[in-house]
């Protein structure tokens, strides 16, 4: 089996990804079994300094630093359970010594498999307003919608003030559900949980739309790749 390297950014999202790899591995391989996994993380603060400055080249350097450490530790391929910093992916993919899976491409592939045609995209403000999902979904022939500006701001605040700190509050869930419902009214037939912590707040049973859990979809894709070799 191949050795999975996790380029982590935020703690909660990376932890969910690692946990999912362990659980999915056991489901495929047998009790307590999963592929070998290594994880490296620079602090979220270091990433945020660069993201807030629009310094995506700087974000790429942090990702490559982690990638290099993971490759030296034996990782055969890499994943990053953080949607926002995939905005630097094009600056990283061809410079790393190991291949990568792309989180938005895995989400788009699952959306296409399930025959969704218009996706609501939730995530950080940088993610919702950035190119990561528009590019991946357009390539798959899928439309998308994002929340209104004031909704994007509130969603972003909840992510950075609560979710990345392990706080999952009922009032925030109610707000997310309200936003998802408004996007359903715009004709969306599924919602991308495009911040890797959102699946810890918005469960499938609480969402007005079917959910595409970017964290778990990436983790499952990594298990498949590791097992298939």
Q: What is the overall pLDDT average?
A: 97
Unreliable stretches (pLDDT < 50, length at least 5) are none
Annotated CATH topology of the largest domain:
Rossmann fold
Write down how many β-strands occur, each being a DSSP E stretch of 2 or more residues. 7
For this structure, what is the CATH class of the largest domain?
Answer: Alpha Beta
User: How far do the termini sit from each other?
Assistant: 6 Å
CATH architecture of the largest domain: 3-Layer(aba) Sandwich
How many separate domains make up the residues?
A: 2
Largest sheet: 4 strands, parallel
Strand content: 5-15%
The strands making up the biggest β-sheet line up spatially as 5-4-6-7
What Rg is obtained from the alpha carbons, in whole angstroms? 17 Å
Which structural class do the helices and strands define?
A: alpha/beta
What is the general shape? globular
Oligomeric state of the chains?
single chain
The number of helical runs is: 9
Write down the secondary-structure element order.
EHEHHEHEHHEHHEEH
Q: What share of residues is helical?
A: 40-55%
How does this model look, in words?
The chain is an alpha/beta fold and 229 residues long. It has two domains: 4-102 and 217-228, Rossmann fold (3-Layer(aba) Sandwich), CATH 3.40.50.1860; 104-214, Rossmann fold, CATH 3.40.50.1860. It is 49% helix and 12% strand. It contains nine helices and seven strands, in the order βαβααβαβααβααββα. The strands form two sheets. A four-stranded parallel sheet has the order 5-4-6-7, with helices on both faces. Strands 2-1-3 form a three-stranded parallel sheet, with helices on both faces. β1 (4-8), α1 (11-29) and β2 form a beta-alpha-beta unit. α1 (11-29) packs across α9, α2 runs antiparallel to α3 and α4 packs across α9 (214-228). It is globular and about 45 Å long. The model has no long low-confidence stretch (mean pLDDT 97).
């Amino acid at each position: 089996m191949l050795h999975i390297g996790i380029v982590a950014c935020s703690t909660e999202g990376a932890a969910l990804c690692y946990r999912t790899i362990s659980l999915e591995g056991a489901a495929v391989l047998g009790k307590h079994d999963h592929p070998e996994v290594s994880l490296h993380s620079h602090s979220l603060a270091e990433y945020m300094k660069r993201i807030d400055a629009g310094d995506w080249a700087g974000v790429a350097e942090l990702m490559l630093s982690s990638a290099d450490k993971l490759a030296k530790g034996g990782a055969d391929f890499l994943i990053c359970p953080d949607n926002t910093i995939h905005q630097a992916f094009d600056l990283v993919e061809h410079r790393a010594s190991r291949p990568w899976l792309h989180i938005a491409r895995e989400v788009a592939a699952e959306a296409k498999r399930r025959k969704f045609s218009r996706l609501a995209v939730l995530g950080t403000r940088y993610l919702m307003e950035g190119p990561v999902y528009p590019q991946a979904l357009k390539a798959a022939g899928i439309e998308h919608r994002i929340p209104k500006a004031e909704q994007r701001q509130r969603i972003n605040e909840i992510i950075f003030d609560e979710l990345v700190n392990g706080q999952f509050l009922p009032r925030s869930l109610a707000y997310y559900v309200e936003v998802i419902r408004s996007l359903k009214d715009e004709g969306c037939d599924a919602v991308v949980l495009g911040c890797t912590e959102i699946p810890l707040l918005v469960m499938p049973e609480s969402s007005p739309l079917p959910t595409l859990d970017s964290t778990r979809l990436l983790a499952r894709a990594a298990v498949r790749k590791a097992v298939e070799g």
